[in-house]
Specification:
single chain; extended; 10 strands; alpha+beta; five-stranded antiparallel beta sheet
Length: 195
């Protein structure tokens, strides 16, 4: 009886479960598959010297656009003049692959997801101790580089504050579905054994 159960479980694992679990784990950890030596760094931080050391361009609405430049490290300065606090900021570009971008911020948590064929969406969300950008406060977007790159290329970005944050990667949902399949199979096997 136990040998029959084991054979059924092993057959099930080798024919269906292992590939599904393997691909689910691979989808959850896309950085395992990359050995990248180029890193375009994007930094979104507070700008504390607006009007003193540099000019901060006012952003009146919740959407704006900007571009990186081909001149090494670059910092753009802005002030949130929209009248509302920004809890999220979504930056979208279609020229640099997501795998080549690293993001840091002292205002938001960063998540980088692929967008289109060669682009990326940088999703910035405020939570916990990360405050976002309050109305009337200034922030900066910096472009840096490490590894085999010399500078960011000329990349146009669109930015939307407080927009609908795209759904996270579907890998967790896939993993949940695989877990449900395994649980269902175990339940059916236990019902058959009890009969």
């Amino acid at each position: 009886m136990i040998a029959g159960k084991l054979t059924g479980v092993c057959h099930c694992i080798t024919t269906v479960r292992v590939p599904l679990i393997f691909y689910a784990a691979l989808a959850l950890c896309p950085t395992w598959a990359s050995a990248n030596t180029i890193d375009q760094i994007l930094v979104v931080n507070r700008a504390i010297d607006c009007g003193i050391d540099y000019f901060c361009a006012p952003i009146i609405g919740l959407a704006f656009s900007f571009s990186s430049a081909r001149d090494g490290y670059q910092v753009l300065h802005y002030t949130n003049m929209s009248g509302v606090k920004w809890y999220s900021l979504i930056l979208t570009e279609v020229d640099e692959p997501a795998i080549d971008i690293t993001c840091t911020s002292n205002l938001f948590a960063c998540q980088i997801v692929p967008y289109g064929n060669h682009g990326a969406r940088i999703i910035l969300r405020a939570f916990g101790n990360l405050p976002g950008v309050a109305a009337g406060k200034s922030f900066e977007i910096g472009f840096g580089c490490k590894g085999d790159c010399l500078s960011w290329p000329d990349v146009p970005f669109t930015a939307v504050a407080n927009g609908a944050v795209p759904e996270p990667a579907t890998a967790p949902v896939l993993l949940l579905g695989v877990a449900a399949l395994i649980a269902g199979k175990r339940f059916r096997l236990s019902v058959l054994d009890d009969a």
